[in-house]
Amino acid sequence: PENHSMDVLYKYLNIYRFESLKEAKMQIAVWRQEYNESCPHRALGETAPAEFARQHWLKQEFRRENTTED
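Above: the chain sequence. Below: its structure as tokens.
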């Protein structure tokens, strides 16, 4: 999946003509944020990273709340 993401990024960069290096960096940052937050990743069970992190956090909270100290 990660190699595929780089292919997609390179295709994206080849489609657009950027007016400046600053604009290109901004567009890459937008793409990277979307990829890291919204796109499902095979390594995460086809879950988007933001959702995977949210689920992990909820599981940790559930464990803390249900752990009794004797």
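The chain has a mean pLDDT of 83.
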